[in-house]
Amino acid sequence: MEENTSPLVVPVDPRRGSRRGAALDELRVTGGFWEHLQRSNSRSTLRHCLEWMERLGWIANFDRVADGETDRPRPGWPFSDSEVYKLAEALVWEHGRTGRAWPNETLEALVDRIAAAQDDDGYLNTCYGHAGQAERYSDLSSGHELYCTGHLLQAAAARVRTVGEDKLVEVARRAADHVCREFGADGRAGVCGHAEIELGLAEFGRALGEERYTEQARLFVERRGHGTLKPIALLDASYFQDDVPVREATVWSGHAVRALYLAAGAVDVAVDTDDAELLGAVARQWERTVESRTYLTGGMGSRHQDEGFGEDWELPPDRAYCETCAGIASVMVSWRLYLATGEARYADLIERTFYNVIAASPGADGRSFFYANPLHQRTTAADVRPGEVNPRAEGGVRAPWFDVSCCPTNLARTLASWQAYAASVDGDTVSLLQYAPGELRVALADGGDLVLRVTTEYPREGAVRVEVVEAPTRPVDLRFRVPHWADGATFTDGSGTSAVEPGWAHVRGGLEPGAALTLDLPVTPRLTWPDPRIDAVRGCVAVERGPLVLCAESVDLPEDWSLAEIRLDTAVAPRADGDGALVRMASVRTPPGDSGRPPYRSAPTPRLDDGSSIRDVQLIPYHRWAQRGPSAMRVFLPTA
Amino acid sequence: MEENTSPLVVPVDPRRGSRRGAALDELRVTGGFWEHLQRSNSRSTLRHCLEWMERLGWIANFDRVADGETDRPRPGWPFSDSEVYKLAEALVWEHGRTGRAWPNETLEALVDRIAAAQDDDGYLNTCYGHAGQAERYSDLSSGHELYCTGHLLQAAAARVRTVGEDKLVEVARRAADHVCREFGADGRAGVCGHAEIELGLAEFGRALGEERYTEQARLFVERRGHGTLKPIALLDASYFQDDVPVREATVWSGHAVRALYLAAGAVDVAVDTDDAELLGAVARQWERTVESRTYLTGGMGSRHQDEGFGEDWELPPDRAYCETCAGIASVMVSWRLYLATGEARYADLIERTFYNVIAASPGADGRSFFYANPLHQRTTAADVRPGEVNPRAEGGVRAPWFDVSCCPTNLARTLASWQAYAASVDGDTVSLLQYAPGELRVALADGGDLVLRVTTEYPREGAVRVEVVEAPTRPVDLRFRVPHWADGATFTDGSGTSAVEPGWAHVRGGLEPGAALTLDLPVTPRLTWPDPRIDAVRGCVAVERGPLVLCAESVDLPEDWSLAEIRLDTAVAPRADGDGALVRMASVRTPPGDSGRPPYRSAPTPRLDDGSSIRDVQLIPYHRWAQRGPSAMRVFLPTA
Q1: Which of A431, A231, A220, A443 is nearest to A342 (CA)?
Q2: pTM of the model
Q3: ipTM score here?
Q4: B268 and B285, same structural domain?
């Protein structure tokens, strides 16, 4: 076994290329937006996930296999094991980041139960292959066995990097070896209906230095797209990306989370095998998908039917699916592309998605979540009761658990490792990508530490102050990401203040302890217009503030107004107010149509209003919507 | 057994109320739009359905039950029996309308095979209750057994009215009796996940004069809405209208075909039991649904996920579901409400739906069909091959058969009985509702015949000429429906020409043989604006011509234009051209956004065009789209 002497505590650690993410133990976040969410995750969400999965029997499914009691009906979907693994990964990161005992002890207890369910040959799944169950791998399209294993491997890779090899890692190794035996070059030429095993194998292979796992990941990536998966009723092969090989696809389509997990695995394989063609293909897919199939929030997936991408320009705000897990998966892909290329645009999309998809999902209690993240909610659900499972947490009410409850555990592992996406190191260049107050202590590859103290109220305020606490005596470079939207940003150092363009603010060489540097990002509210090819929001505009997409929520409207009949006056600039904005709006009344006629008229509808119908209305950050009770909401506001 | 002496050859024959539809044998259509479709149905669609269902084994499923060979895997969905019954109903009407031998012989052969599968106690279903199958009624949510029986009863009711009692009727009677025993007041208090048994029982009861069947239909209607159906994964009780009792619902929601079949059954029950409250409830549901959840085409159902209604104003043109069967079901409800009330608006919606949903589904060959009828198609399917089943006939290509192939047989029975919706009789008042060339010979209740000869090129031309061939000597009334959109209609009789308002043009008394009457409907193209609350088509306008919704199809655009970037010049009135229109359009070019950024901008997109980009563009009737090969299409046109 190859010794892994100094593992980097990061979720993604490519074999090739000198750029790396800052490790979880290099960046301490001491307050602000993300520390708040991490605290809520730590205090509430992790326990919440554990409690629900105990209550529903998803963890006990492992005990049943261990106890040979599998011929009773099994609770949970076939893929419920993956939820347990995602929670395990969350606990690993939580322990790795904080060093606290509870996550570690909880993890170890969980691993004991998982390990007991592993078959002698390494196969590990609570839904298949035992008495009373369907045969192993008898339904690759829907069975999710390899998908589950992929999540086990991600958790184990995290464990290798935080504490080294242990029981979880050993279980994962045996499971990975089993997969390689079954699905290797000489084994069955199948793929899983839900991608995930690819990136799991790649990351676990990186963590252990096992190239066999990378090779198996490569095989899975190359095998997909040849129509080998049996179609699922009413869904075609694009649903699981089995219609076109990854290196031939030009855009993402089908089920969004599947497409994105597959892309992440493909980048891992491309980077580790130095496959520029494959990397270029995924980068081009990212580009077209971002440019024509991505919401203002960063959300991906515009169809409910297959939880999938729509066509170019098909971006309805009301039926936006924008699954929380797709947001997380998008960050996973963008982060890998950032590490591979160093391009700021990937970090830009990560920021947009973190603030407007990922942060929108959990409620203030850390125990309720959005599954879909639409940009327009017309009415509120009457029938969702707090504390109850509901299928998709629709209707403007976060739910404690869903029928397919993939998002809470995915959030838990992502929030527990947020700092992994905040900075990167490439030789003697350190890049600050996401801004939060705290301390960054980076061990540079050529020796010496760079220690920075960051002070900021971002995103509420735009100033990001960095004090150099410690720096090597040789020149090192520091880069601040200047987000795409930050027209008018300035940068201040010892020599004065100057304008900086979106992209990077560079400080080349000469970092002296005690030096103070300030990036000032404009966080005044601004209007944002959709591309005119997006039919669903024609004639509308959105308001953003810094990285935050804002929205109008029904509870902030005058009582006799309706979100269906507001008009934004774009001639009046939105003004900052709290962390949201005040905008000038009019309420219009639609005169009634003819009784019993479809809602189409022989002339444009006259606008009915009077002087009293113009008001300043509060907009709030989108991620906070529906926190004051069920509400209606819209991001895109019709213009006057 | 009650004798049924002079049955009326109509699909809906209420027990109460004096208004009735003109019978199939009272109205002979001799040419024009609907005769053309009836001929195609007659020559192609009926045989096509028969061939496909033989090939797929859906008919042979009955043989298997008869032969006791049910322990092999059964082809088709659980509800495939209903397709056979809908084809049977189509054959009954086809025979009833034409008197031809082929449909009758084909039906009788089919009935022999159906009858052989009936169990001794009357239960008849090829998917449940036999060796190797799940138990009878073990899955009311998804099993569709009562749904299938409902279609059998509709076919049998049609048979009673066209030829009288025969083997099909006897089979149906035994099936209906079985349902009454199992699900009667003392039986199990269940309902079927898919409504249909209600209207089947009501109509069959009417045809046979069996009040027990009406009572059973009433029980089913009243039982629904109390959450007794086990939910189907990810769908809630509203999917099958089990969330709110019919008499308490205010709007249609959930699966559109289910909601509409249920409403049709509820009207039948309300009328036959003189339940004004129930009738009023359905009429109010119709009104709100039409006013806020109905497409310009008359299409209903805006969600793919559950084939269901969206919320008020949720009417996206691109993801419009507008299932062909929902259009048919909407006609079934509107027709019943028309018979109950005599209000022209119901016939208006029927016309809109016939021309723009039902007529849009079949291809010119009568052997390919649309399942969904969206109002905007951005791209064409690359992967649909003629002759192949495809799940939903999406992508702008009609398919010969679908995975769930409910629409072809539903079309077949509806087209075979089109004239049933074209005129009505109430005492001595005859109302012309839909216009086609031919002869109407109505036996009036108080004696005597009214015989009219209709000459018209409608909808291509607006003149409807009626010659009185025969009339009683006493005064009788004749009404012409003047459609809602017909501003500027005129009516000409012996005394001259006068303007008529939408609603009715009455000719009271004094119908003399030889008299000539002409209704002139304006069929010049006109602009139609959507209600401003329909977010998805803000800033757009549609063009209609007479009852026809028009559309722009990609094949009619200059080669370098794109449907994503056209703008209609509303200042130039559309001009009639063929049966479509010519409109003035501009092509605009969207300047490229920033590479790798989501499609939202810091300023409105400048319009790039030059003088050469303005053209007259052909619009065609929506129902004819995609008949010149796969195409992109849009009904709502962005304005300049």
Answers
A1: A431
A2: 0.95
A3: 0.94
A4: yes
